[in-house]
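Protocol step 4 of 5: obtain the predicted structure for the target chain.
Materials: sequence only (see below). No template structures provided, no constraints applied. The aim of this step is simply to have a reference model before the mutagenesis design in step 5. Sequence pasted as it appears in the construct record:
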Amino acid sequence: MQQPLARLRRNILRSIGAAAATAFIAVTAPSAFAGAYPDKPVRIVVGFAPGGTNDILARLFAVKLQEKLKQNFIVDNKPGANSAIGNEFVARATPDGYTLLVSSSGGLTTNPILMKNLQYDPVKDFEPIALLGSFPLVVTVPAALPVKNFGELVQYAKTTKDGKLDNGTPTTSFVLVAETLSAVSGVKFNHILYKGSGPVVAGLLSGEIQTGVLDSPAVIQQVKGGKLKALAVTTAQRSAALPDVPTVAELGYPGYDAPIWTALMAPKGTPAPVLATLRTAVADILKDPDTVAKMHALALDPGDADSVALGNRIRSDIARWDKAAKAANIQPE
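Step 4 output (structure tokens):
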């Protein structure tokens, strides 16, 4: 009779030990459970209407992240106020990794300079995840506008009623790039704000506006289709996707270089294991040949998942554009 009793005691002790181990894991394993991220759909907020670079990149990476992390990544467009509406929404979201932001460089580096009473701080309210890509802006005009090159555009502007071209713009960063172009070339712009690059392209096609200094992915198909004319790119090197379009520097303005970029961000306080999962996944996606090919086709240069470098770039670009705004006497509104 002693042997069955001993076995019973051992079974009870094993049961108690298993229960204790389970309780210990439940109490001590948030980081282990974070490894299961994501276990529900993730929302990627874009502060612009569909059709522009940020939207295009968000949808490309949503598909790739879904494939890699086996969970739905859903793009949610929240356009308005130079992307400030979408950016603020993410800044105030629960920092659990289930609400992310695909932001233009303008939303992170020029909104703080050009917008009064901004309700988010690009440095204090976000965790940098990855630089998704960078790209030139393209000086674009309707096919019907009677100019063949940028020099003719400068002269054409002088014939308008107030010496300015109606320039459609989706974001404040594009305004500053256009103003740096104005400073070196003398062409003057009357900036008209739209809720995204897609609507600006529609304005160009309809003749509602005369110019758009726009992100290359938003205009490349219309340029190649002959419906819009590309007169110059704002980067130091020509775009591989638009090899016949000269740089601004080539047109007689040496040293001109104004790239734009797009980043993936999370609310400040997002758990480190979640950020690590996202950075690792995005780093792999940025090396994926299919991703690289699709980005190059849109005149985008793939970025990287160096979050420290991205944070430093945000701070240095804020300083750069603050200097440019003061030089152009642009006041926050």
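Step 4 remarks: Residues 137-251 form a domain with the D-Maltodextrin-Binding Protein; domain 2 fold (CATH 3.40.190.10). The chain has two domains: 42-134+259-327, 137-251.
Proceed to step 5.
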